[in-house]
């Protein structure tokens, strides 16, 4: 039989050939028109013709009088609608076309994730990438990202059984389903789901990648204060902001590791708030902020193997149990030194991007090859007076500019907590004054943060810390009362510690005319209470600086560690540590920090040798008035 010519009502393509429609599952008789052509599959053969499916839910008969050939179950043919009877039965007739083009017909309107709340109760089609697959005791939940956001999509095979097992993480799919509200959030109840392959998948990925690039663009924000030294870091921070926004849009969890001190909290808490708001804006799962972001304090100023082992185990469990991607690791106020590299090398076995924002003296040769982004003032010939909290407030504003008013006091708290002598500190303090903070108030906030963090140990203490810092705090009066209480307790405990320790402080005058003070904090200070050895050493040091008005170095040591503070002396502690590693065989020396503050570890039996060698180097160090009263806390 010769091929048919198109009916007058049939759609034709731009090339003048007829269009044949391929109906997606979920399409109904309402999507079929007389005079149009459709793909059909034989689902049954009877004496009087064949039954065909246009979709899983749309079937009909092609009577033998309307068949052009002989068919078996599973064969495909082209049909057009012939009749819809009063009882709902549908009949088709076969057509044969010499040439045609196929066009996909989706069930329902094609809708972007960002617009789903306007389509509740409707059947829609969504195209996107699978970013999480979670099997529940009921349906399988596919979290699907399109150009504008991420939405959970529930597909049910049977209770606890994986639906669409051929679909994997990162696949590009097209699904059809009904938009419903579940626990005050949008969810799609899946009717059908199709996995893209080949060219169709590549085209969709390219489109999604272009959209992701647009949505990940950080906001352009004016600096809170004009500062030339800081502007050197802005391009690096913009790259990090883009990386973090991309992670959220891709459904990649973020594990935020920060030093557990005032500057570390001023860095991490604003970023936590900015990222949680960005997650809520682009994910329709109300639990997404909790599942996709973890803020984790680290006691040490580097990434310890204990911490990385916990983080990696947690991430692998979440990948197995909840179908999550492996996380992005965000290091704040630590992560720049050779001491971090064993942990980084452990993560290198897995797909875990590493981003570092820090102001400790870095070892770029050791760290650079292992991290994806590294922001550090030293990499731009600046130094630790640009604190991590100052950098992270700008980073948070690039992610969510609406936070600017809420964060106006935080850079000043960070600077005072880390004793920054930045030339713009007065401007940061003035900015905080606009929010009702005196300099004394700001110092109390920093002290309260240190005190609370000490007792929280490894707990992030979210609500307590938010109230103490007055970020995401809904009660200013409660914030002020809490800070007053914590700061006064901290002052009391510091006084008690120094009352016990001060009489045991040893003093000598070095060859360079600097004062050297030593204290055995293991034997002559209260242990396991506030303040910790580093803080105790810093408090003793501060009082000696005030007493003498001269260059001062203070060492607080225990069996296998020493913490160092310097004022008016250019120690370059990272360089000293490198020299001690080479000079003291069997010393097990490691450590680092800034030019004038740091910490060293060693094996217990070599303590005398290490500290003696360290003091010799201190005696040769250059006095430098520019380094007076510049004491960032470790």
TrEMBL record:
It comes from the Archaea. InterPro entries: DHH_sf, NA-bd_OB-fold, NA-bd_OB_tRNA, S1_domain. The keyword Mitochondrion does not apply. Keywords: Exonuclease, Hydrolase, Nuclease. Residues 35-100 form the S1 motif domain. CDD domains: RecJ_OBF2_like (cd04487). It holds the Pfam family tRNA_anti-codon. The keyword Hydrolase applies. One of its GO terms (molecular function) is exonuclease activity. Gene3D superfamilies: 2.40.50.1010, 3.90.1640.30, Nucleic acid-binding proteins. This is RecJ like exonuclease. The lineage of its organism: Archaea, Methanobacteriati, Methanobacteriota, Stenosarchaea group, Halobacteria.
